[in-house]
Amino acid sequence: ADMIFAEAVTDLETYYKLNQSLGGEVPILANITEFGKTELFSKQELYESGVAIVLYPLSAHRAMAKAAFTVYGSIIENGHQKECLDLMQTRDDLYKTLDYHKYEELMDNLYGN
Prior knowledge:
Helix content: 40-55%
Structural class: mainly alpha
Strand content: 5-15%
Strand order of the largest sheet: 1-2-3
Number of helices: 5
Low-confidence stretches: none
């Protein structure tokens, strides 16, 4: 196997025993999803139990969905989103993350603008 996707593991000892049974030769993936059966173990706890890969499949989505609910609730209730700006990524932060100005410079150099 290329890796083991260990689903719904409820304790660290199970990861440890699985890793031992595989001789530490096959990477183990822990699926850490909020509100599931697996406890929200830390990366360090998982590593020490023999887990090589940790998947957080819905963490960002759930945070974004809650933020969206809060923002739209504010717009409905207050007619604006002013109280929610601290939940939002600024344009400057987005541009820094994307290295947008470097991309813009590349496009200008390529197309002569």
